[in-house]
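Researcher: Go.
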Amino acid sequence: MVLTGRLSAGGSWVADHVVLGSVLLPGTAFVELAVRAGDEVGCGRLEELTLQAPLVLPKRAAVQVQVVVGGQDAAGARSVSVYSRAEDGSGAWVRHASGSVTPVGEPTAGFDLRQWPRPAPNRWRWRGRMRRSRVADTAMDRRSAG
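Model: Structure:
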């Protein structure tokens, strides 16, 4: 599946993401593009995304964007890649990010989520250690200063 669109820096929050004088698409926007594309094919969990090249947005023009989602593998995962090129269609497509999306399953946690907030084990002893640590640090500072 290929999703297409157009991005520009003009009049949007993206225009504030300036690095060394150039407006760059933030990494979080690549995440949003990949997750949205995954949602379209029933794979709303982003397993991995590697940024490969910055996407520089021109000041007065836009860029064409493609998000390509590959076929499903044996485990249900799909590849996802984000490409761009100049709005006028000149130039080659540049891959900016690639990764994989998977179907959303049951959340896994190392503890029972029904008990929230989790009890803090040994809360009192932890606070005591912090106090002793500060006292010890203060005592050491006084010794080294004199």
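Model: The chain has two helices and eight strands.
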